[in-house]
Amino acid sequence: MQRILVCLKRVVDYNVRVRLKPDGSGVVLDGVKMSINPFDEIALEEALRIRERGEVEEVVVASIGTSDSQQQLRTGLAMGADRAVLVETDAQLEPLTVARTLLALVDRENPDLVLLGKQAIDADNNQTAQMLAALWQRPHAVFVSELSIDGAAATAVREVDAGLEVVEVDLPAVVSSDLRLNEPRYVKLPEIMKAKKKLLETIAFAELGIDATSQFSVVSTDPPPERAQGIRVDSVEALVAELKSRGLVDG
Amino acid sequence: MAEVLIVAEHDGATLNASTARCVSCAEEIAGDQVDIAVFADDGQALAAQAAKLAGVRTVLLIERAENAHPVAAVLAPQLAALATNYSHVLGPSTTFGKDLMPRTAALLGVGQLSDIMAVESPYRFKRPIYAGNAIVTVEANTGATLVATVRTASYGQTGSGGAAAIERRETDASIPAHTRFVELRTASDGSRPDLQSATKIVSGGRGVGSGENFALIYDLAEKLGAAVGASRAAVDAGYVANDLQVGQTGKIVAPDLYIAIGISGAIQHLTGIKDAGTIVAINKDEDAPIFDVADIGLVTDLFTAVPELTDALGD
Ligand SMILES: Cc1cc2nc3c(=O)[nH]c(=O)nc-3n(C[C@H](O)[C@H](O)[C@H](O)COP(=O)(O)OP(=O)(O)OC[C@H]3O[C@@H](n4cnc5c(N)ncnc54)[C@H](O)[C@@H]3O)c2cc1C
Q: Using one digit for the tens of pLDDT, what is the confidence trace for B267-303?
């Protein structure tokens, strides 16, 4: 293969406990630690391993977002990507618009494979890979935990509700990663220095001429309903008595 | 007037309970204007099951050899072709629906709404974001077909006793050959209840320590007639198969009783169990976050407590 395109989204780090603005207008993002969406990081790791096996020439990372997303692209370069592209916009794009934007990048880069996370841990949508594949009229394999490339096709093992599903897709294709695909490498300091010299190209979103009309608007963002305060019991006997009194076990 | 088309999920022989849950959601959107599409290679029996679901108007049966397996690239063009007659197209937010619905939406040139947890009006919904740490109320344009997935844990199954008409349909959608189903590997032997419809679940985490030790979890589940679940750490460590994972990236469950054993209660796990009626936690660390959500907590060593609990529950 010539090229893998990996998509990286900048999101609130998964260790952060998100807080809501009291007026219901959204999630507090000021001063909060931001990272590469963990699923995208796994997608990048997979692309790097494919390159290290000598099965692809080049790994390109792409992000769509504000200029701050450069940080995540630099991290991607430090992990080992060859170059980076940022499509810069301050707007919150819906997944369909993101997929259209990625299609524009696909047209420029002609990748043999697009790898990205199955979902971003902010909006938890789980849509972009499937949408990009539809617009590109190419196959997709999503929730993938094992991937092998053989010539003009790839075999993917997918984590589905019933177990593991194996599919074969012709290349080019879109593949979305699940958690067990791999464990991403740690970035070492010299790599961070080296990454500063790698190419990071910026394209203004407006330049691509993409229809960005939104179909959905968020009316409010509220905390989830709270569960009632629980109780502690101090023995198995007391636990069984409690379960019985609530009618959850027989007796 | 809203009219909803639901895509049925099935394994070739039996309709998945997620379909009956989608009907409950669809009724809130469109009353009795709810149809179900069954894609199969041999689907007469499946269509008959769908026709019995209360509240369904018509079952569309689309039979072709390519529909033998649920391949999204194969089903999406057919579903998109049928969608033109409907205001809403719904699928379950199971791996089947998550795979298929975004592809269908993009073919229709529209967006997709993920994980409907409440219907406020035919174009206004609630859905979770940030692993359930926030709930957004979203309004959709009325001018576009609304394609969405239904968070199945938020809806009960519609009743049986319906008698919908079954109509055979053909679409002239062209079906790609670029995606080929190879096989499905199932780890569970089907003897335990399915996690997503179980009324009781016993889940084990990293604290259980090994695949062999998971026998403790299975023994308790057996006694209770419960399904078995697990945390990501337990799956990653190879104690149990991936299809038992509960959480943000595993299954979202809604049993009456959820017993978490040796699970710390990471936010990604908790998001999968928020709809449980009663949460019981057994953990030796009294500061484990699982106790913040547990209705009944027991701070103790699981290796003594779980066998004791199994015994105490009698036969
Ligand atoms: C993007 C992302 C998605 C994720 N998705 C999921 C998901 O879907 N589901 C999920 O579960 N996790 C998910 N995780 C992982 C999650 O963050 C936690 O790492 C995981 O849930 C921890 O599993 P655990 O509670 O079994 O393990 P640990 O956190 O290691 O907890 C083990 C617990 O066992 C207790 N224990 C140990 N020995 C004993 C004993 N003898 N008796 C009693 N108690 C004992 C300990 O006190 C501890 O509380 C995700 C993480 C990320 C980053």
A: 999 999 999 999 999 999 999 999 999 999 999 999 9
Report residue A249 as tokens: 């076990």
Query: Any CB–CB contact under 8 A between B13 and chain A?
Result: no
User: Which of B296, B299, B302, B303 is best to mutate for the A interface (most A CBs within 10 A)?
Assistant: B296
pTM to 2 decimal places: 0.96
B269 alpha carbon – ligand 1 mean position (Å): 7
Instruction: Classify the complex by whether its ipTM is higher than 0.95, answering yes or no.
Output: yes
Question: Which domain-ending residue is among B145, B168, B191?
Answer: B168
**Number of domains composing chain B:** 2
Mutation target to probe the B interface, by most B beta carbons within 10 A, among A168, A236, A245 is: A236
Q: What is the reported pLDDT for B288? A: 98
Comparing B126 with A251, the larger pLDDT belongs to: B126
A220–chain B Cβ distance below 8 A for any pair: yes
Residue A212 near residue A152 (C-beta atoms within 8 A): no
Q: What is the pLDDT of residue B191?
A: 72
- Looking at the fold, whether B121 and B232 belong to one and the same domain comes out as no
Q: Which of B202, B216, B231, B242 to mutate to test the pocket of ligand 1 (most atoms within 8 A of CB)?
A: B231
Whether B117 and B245 share a structural domain = no
Interface contacts A/B by beta carbons within 8 Å? 247
CATH node for A3-226: 3.40.50.620
pLDDT, average across residues B192-217: 95
Residues B12-38: what's their mean pLDDT? 97
- Atom number, ligand 1, closest to the C-alpha of residue B231: 11
Residue B181 lies in a domain: no
Is any ligand 1 atom within 6 A of the Cβ of residue B306? no
Range of the domain at B15: 4-168
Asked if the Cβ–Cβ distance from B176 to A139 is below 8 Å, we say yes
